[in-house]
């Protein structure tokens, strides 16, 4: 179960990164070209949000069943960068990044002006994406 979940989590990550990147680029281009916030704009942001939340769910399950996740928390882990990345930095940064994406979606949903919607998505999704990219375990990611 662990190996299959780990591979699934790694594979879905590509989809999440792609969907969030599409949402950010669409928001930036639409903001610059003063386009209206259409149903397609909402779909781009919603698909990115849903994919990120599903990935978080799979990641949390993996964190608690993985030998390098929750079960590996110790003082020794903090002294070594790769185990610390798996046990603390990666999960924490993913949660913060996805919270920012969620806040951006909520802020865009409440906004009335199209420019404000695109601005919220561009900033929140963009910062969330940057945080996520900063703590992907690139050394072991397939």
Written account of the structure:
The chain is mainly α. It has one domain (2-134). The chain has 5 helices and no strands. The longest helix is centred in the first third of the chain and has 31 residues, at 2-32. The radius of gyration is 17 Å and the shape is elongated. The chain starts with a helix and ends in an 8-residue tail after the last helix.
User: Into how many domains do the coordinates divide?
Assistant: 1
> Rg to the nearest angstrom?
17 Å
**Weakly predicted, low-confidence segments:** none
Query: How does the major sheet shape up?
Result: none
Count of beta strands:
0
Strand content: under 5%
What is the overall shape? elongated
Distance between the termini: 18 Å
List keywords for this structure.
mainly alpha
Topology:
Blueprint: H1 2-32, H2 39-65, H3 75-78, H4 81-110, H5 114-134
Helix pairs in contact: 1-2, 1-5, 2-4, 4-5
